[in-house]
Amino acid sequence: MRSRSNSIEGPAKTCKGNLHHCTKSEKADLLEPDPGYIRKGKKHRDYVAETDTILRSHKSEMKAEASSKRGNDLSRDDLLFLLSVLEGELQARDEVISVLKAEKIDLALLEAHYGFVTPKRVLDGLQRDAIQANAQQWQEDIYEKPMSELDKVIEKHKETHKRMLEQLLLVEKSQRQTLYELEDEKQKHTEYMEKSDEFTSLLEQERER
């Protein structure tokens, strides 16, 4: 009499030999991966990854040592040359930044800032030189804040009007003083003429006698 295990292994072996004679469940059992094989594969992958990491770190250390050796081998002239190259690159970068800043400013703003109309290249050059010289930065945009600028103009006009009124009051006071003096002179002249007429009449009377 066959055992149950033999009866189960028999069809399994038959399925392994010919998949057409297998049922769906037997095919699923055959296609299911072996857990032991999976564990072995995972261990192998972990080992390969760990080995690769060690190799990469070793290579990076070797590169760092080689670069440090090359750095130590550089002479003073080489270091000065590299420093001059770096300085030139920084200056070129600053010039490019200043040119880009100057080109971003509107032509109308440049004309308003410098107070005259010229080709845009000239104004861009002036603004670029100002940026490179670390001059006073761009002032408030009068075109972006018209109301505030209008308030400033009104305030300035009020101050000018006040000063003009003060000047007019001084002129009026001086003119009034001059009129008083003229009136006084006129009065004196009138009195003098009257006295002169009296004196003349007295002389005529004396002559007639």
Characterize this entry briefly.
The protein is mainly α.
What does this structure look like?
There is one protein chain. The chain is an all-alpha fold. The chain has 3 domains: 8-73, no CATH class; 76-144, no CATH class; 145-209. 83% of the residues lie in helices and 0% in strands. It has helices at residues 4-17, 24-31, 35-73, 76-104, 107-114, 120-132, 146-208. The radius of gyration is 55 Å and the shape is rod-shaped. This is Cortactin-binding protein-2 N-terminal domain-containing protein. It comes from Xenopus laevis (African clawed frog). Residues 73-209 form the Cortactin-binding protein-2 N-terminal domain. Residues 190-209 are annotated as: Disordered.
Give the arrangement of secondary structure elements:
Elements lengths: L3 H14 L6 H8 L3 H39 L2 H29 L2 H8 L5 H13 L13 H63 L1
Helix pairs in contact: 4-6, 5-6
Keywords: Coiled coil
InterPro entries: Cortactin-Actin_Reg, Cortactin-binding_p2_N
Protein name: Cortactin-binding protein-2 N-terminal domain-containing protein
Report the count of strand segments. 0
Structural class: mainly alpha
Shape: rod-shaped
- Name the assembly state: single chain
The largest sheet is: none
Instruction: List SSEs in N-to-C order.
Output: HHHHHHH
Keywords: Coiled coil
Domain Cortactin-binding protein-2 N-terminal: 73-209
Pfam families: CortBP2
Organism: Xenopus laevis (African clawed frog)
